[in-house]
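pasting for the record
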Amino acid sequence: MDEWQESLYGSRFAADYDLRAFGGPPDSDTQEAVTFLSGLLPGPGGRLLELGSGTGRLLVPLAERAFDVQGVELSPEMVARMRDKPGAEGIPVLVGDMSAFSLDARFDIVLLAYNTLFSLLTQERQVQCLERAAAHLEPDGQLVLECYAPYPMTKLPPKNVLTYSLTPDEVVLMPTLHDQVAQTIEVNVVALREDGIRLFPSRVRYAWPPEIDLMARLAGLTLRERWADWTREPFGPGSDGHVSVDAARAKEDWPLMAGG
């Protein structure tokens, strides 16, 4: 793959991200996520940091529930869209790389929702992100990850074009390139309309749940619970995704290193 600019995703998607990704607010997935996270936070004033906070889809309703929320987001365009929403003006957001940030604060929850971890295109950067997340947790804090389960990717061919939608006013095609060895998928959604063509590029590196668990262990975390979705449906072989909750491991549980 040629050199990928991560900022492209935010700059191309920001204008109608909420509508294209979630059908516009309020959607049931957002409401279920807010309910789930509210149940983990220690009452009003509980602190949550979202990595890849986007347009504030989750931060804004959590702030409305009197939680102390903050974001880290690479795309200034996404942050600008968040600022347009009522109640978002007081939410602090650091514009920067979620695998290499530092804040002078600790949180009850660090959140990576909606496959955000997969936007980092190497295993090394995904581990670095989890390390940064762990470093910003309170001693009894928790990391919450929402990711799709990549089992269907085993059937995705190296090159493919899908018809995503077809209406009298718009045709949306989804060409993909899939590298099973690198676990990467390159997509450029093509929206064809009478007034022109729009392109929405994205790239991901997906990871299997056991790999995510191992990366979390390298960051000093351990899996506490895993569900199929925000409603706490049991996770199993047929699950499309997972919501995983990790907690910090006690130092005595860390493996001994040679010469340590």
